[in-house]
Amino acid sequence: MDASQSVKQVQKKILEVMKYIDKLCRDNGIVYYIMGGTALGAIRHGGFIPWDDDLDIFMTPSEYEKFKKVFEAENSSTFVLQEWRTTPDYLEYAKVRMNGTTFIEEAFRDRKDLHQGIYVDIMILHKVPENKFIQKLVYYESKFVTLYALSQRNWKPKSTSKKLVLKSLKFMPCKLMAKCFYRRIYKYDDTKTNFKYCYWITPVKFRSGLFDSSFFSDPVDIPFEDTILLGSKKIKEYLEYRYGDYMKLPSKEAQQAAVHAMLFDVNRDYKEYVK
Fold this sequence. Notes:
Blueprint (H helix, E strand, L loop, with lengths): L2 H25 L5 E2 L1 H9 L11 E4 L1 H14 L4 E4 L10 E6 L3 E4 L13 E6 L1 E4 L2 H20 L8 H9 L5 H14 L7 E4 L11 E3 L6 E6 L2 E6 L2 H9 L8 H6 L3 E5 L10
Parallel strand pairs: 2-6
Antiparallel strand pairs: 1-2, 3-4, 4-6, 5-12, 7-8, 8-9, 10-11
């Protein structure tokens, strides 16, 4: 089987996970938005980006709390909710994983305590005031949280500056600092006016993770593969802001870099590999 067929197998399973999430959300009035490469794939390809092996959605903290409650009430035997509050050394977002499958990433190859089934990412979309100083403060605090979490899973930085910062973490009260920074990241989520949305708990740069509030104010149905998912009414404006000429295909090297899994199996549970 060639690589493209392998990716399609994974995508099919990912879509099963997403259809379950979508049904839970629609049945319970929960709002989410396809984002990043998933939104890009929906508009440019009518579904998955052909070489991509993940699917990402945004939820605000309040929508995520509603989702978590109904997910736990469902008590599914097929799907598992994996989140930062209960998983050690994990970044601030959640994954809905599928039992009976395998999706092992390089960074987690030795984590026997971690569910490593095929998944959908739920990214937490926060609010931040229009004030540039506060935005920068939340941005750098988010970067610290990201770097600290990455340092806990044997991440190897490429740049000299990041290597130096990573070494300096050994001399800081990181857990206490991360706890304080999280408070500010969540501080503005009840803001009703004069705010922007932000998502910086990843390697994303300042501008790329700061969004006009109108980008995520009106969810609409967006065709995706053989189903319909929720996305922004201004999805094309969001994509232009995020990617520029979003209809232009990336280089072959960039396509290869989009693959996350070092090992996957759509029919066997990850526990058969992580021993």
